[in-house]
Design brief:
By secondary structure, the chain is an alpha+beta fold. The chain contains four helices and seven strands, in the order βααββββββαα.
Length: 165
């Protein structure tokens, strides 16, 4: 069975990385164009929670339903496709603190294509090089959302500053 691994760091504390992933609606912000994500259901991230969404590849919709398991709010979670374009898709997100201001993110995917002509589309859309490009974009998006390139009070996981009296 094929696997895919991608590891990177962000200059943000572990809690900020966990907060970003806790809101499954951020999938839209972490998905590269030209793919669009339309979310039908996004339970708060918890053991057994469900996310239902459609990935739009141009005019082509791919419906996906995933269940979250092994959820530890500070260390990561696993999402498993229970309905979608792949025969199997198990995506494990692991977060680890390198120090107070740097977090390592490891993405591990075990996947299997649907066999025969029915699986042609998934074999075309979810190639190893396509996954690599997707996660390169995700790394850039997370860094943009979490690191000091934005004003501190506009980054994910940060509360706006209150004026001092």
């Amino acid at each position: 069975m094929p696997t895919f691994d991608f590891t990177f760091t962000v200059r943000a504390p572990l809690s900020a990385v966990a907060d970003l992933h806790r809101d499954t609606r951020n999938l839209q912000r972490l998905t590269p164009p030209p793919i669009r994500v339309q979310i039908q259901r996004a339970d708060p991230l918890a053991e057994g929670s469900i996310s239902e969404f459609t990935l739009w590849f141009g005019f082509l919709p791919l419906r996906w339903i995933a269940r979250h398991t092994d959820v530890t709010l500070q260390n990561g979670f696993r999402d498993t496709q229970i309905q979608g374009p792949m025969q199997k898709w198990v995506h494990t997100h692991t977060f680890s603190s390198m120090d107070d201001s740097v977090t390592r993110i490891h993405e591990h995917i075990e996947y299997e294509y649907v066999k025969g002509p029915r699986g042609l589309l998934s074999r075309l859309l979810f190639t190893p090089s396509g996954l690599w490009l997707n996660f390169c974009y995700r790394r850039l998006a997370m860094r943009r959302l979490l690191e000091n390139t934005a004003a501190p009070d506009t980054r994910i996981g940060r509360q706006p500053a209150t004026p001092r009296e």
